[in-house]
Amino acid sequence: MPFRNLEGDSGFVVPADPLARFDELLTALDAGRGWMQDKAAIRLAAITLLVTPGDAKRIAASTRTASAVLGERLGWFSGVDESVRLVIAAHLVKADDHPEAFVDELERVRGMFRADKLRRGGVYEVLAVLVLRRLFGKIEPEHVERFHEIYDAMKAHHWWLTGPEDFPACAMLAARPEEPAAIGTGTDAIYRALHEQAGLSRGDPLQTAAHILYLGGLEAPVIVERFSGLLAAFRAAGAKIGTGEYDEVAILSFVALPAASIVATVRELEAGLRARLKWLSERDALSLGASLAFVRLAGASGELGTLADAKLLLDMQTIVTARQTASIAAISATT
């Protein structure tokens, strides 16, 4: 499968012990945590930087500096709060990118979005530009046009589900070789197969899983069979897999190992995380365990770097959605 090779990039080093490296980065990042910054952002930043070589304290300092620059340039009205900025900053440090250059590109590309009559997406536009920049370097009008066409193709199949929150996924799919209409049809085929063959509930989480699974370039019946087998193995091992965990299962579906081996690795790492982070919820432990397992199993083979990026960006999107939901609930409680 044509994914970016982690081992082939001298800027990435797969750690011998992903859990220990995560703990080291988490400690360094947490030392500078602001009072408005939630712990989920720290965890995701640490996961993002897992394959970045160097001293953990230096990496954490670079990430904090990049986050501060983003805060100055983006401002309060961008929809990008301190927690989301930190994870974006971690992506920039991982890619050896510069926050000033990123914001300059963001402003330029937003102008192209408006010229192409793409609806405004707030923070999701920022995440989409981050993805497009990672995929294409300098973003050209044809990239924006293709991104817009993929969004419209998805909207044609699921107009009630597809919105700005799907911008990051559309950006990831822009690197696929198929025509936008074929991408829309292909993601819909996976969505339908997940519902009809695997019996999963329709909705946004299922659409997100379908977007991830399409990145592998496999036919819907093949990848859905793999997904279903992994889902069954997780549940047989006692893991509580609901709609919120579909993306974890989707990402791990690309690891070329028996389902039982994948699940055993995730559960082992979950136990290690819960032992170190007593306050960690079961759901968060599963998500982090899946991310660490992905690095250990797939990263060590030098494959699937693009899917790893997709998972982290979707996790970032989850933070955005969760914070927006909390804000709406707080406003409703006062009216």
Please specify the SSE layout and strand pairing.
Elements: H1 18-30, H2 39-48, H3 56-74, H4 82-94, H5 99-115, H6 123-136, H7 141-157, H8 167-173, H9 180-196, H10 204-214, H11 220-236, H12 246-252, H13 259-276, H14 282-297, H15 305-333
Helix pairs in contact: 1-2, 1-3, 2-4, 2-15, 3-4, 5-6, 6-8, 7-8, 7-9, 9-10, 9-11, 10-12, 11-13, 12-14, 13-14
Distance between the termini: 52 Å
- Kindly estimate the percentage of residues that lie in beta strands according to DSSP: under 5%
Described by strand count, sense and barrel closure, the largest sheet is:
none
The Rg value, from CA coordinates, equals 19 Å
Number of helices: 15
Mean pLDDT: 86
Shape: globular
Tell how many strands the DSSP assignment holds. 0
How many domains comprise the coordinates?
A: 3
The assigned structural class equals mainly alpha
Would you identify the regions where 5 or more consecutive residues have pLDDT less than 50? 1-10
Topology as a string of helices (H) and strands (E): HHHHHHHHHHHHHHH
Helix content: 55-70%
What's this entry about, in short?
This protein has 15 helices and no strands.
Explain what you see.
The protein has 335 residues and is an all-alpha fold. The protein folds into three domains: 8-94, no CATH class; 98-175; 193-289. It has helices spanning 18-30, 39-48, 56-74, 82-94, 99-115, 123-136, 141-157, 167-173, 180-196, 204-214, 220-236, 246-252, 259-276, 282-297, 305-333. Helix 1 (18-30) crosses helix 2 (39-48), helix 5 (99-115) crosses helix 6 (123-136) and helix 7 (141-157) packs across helix 8 (167-173). The protein is globular, with a radius of gyration of 19 Å.
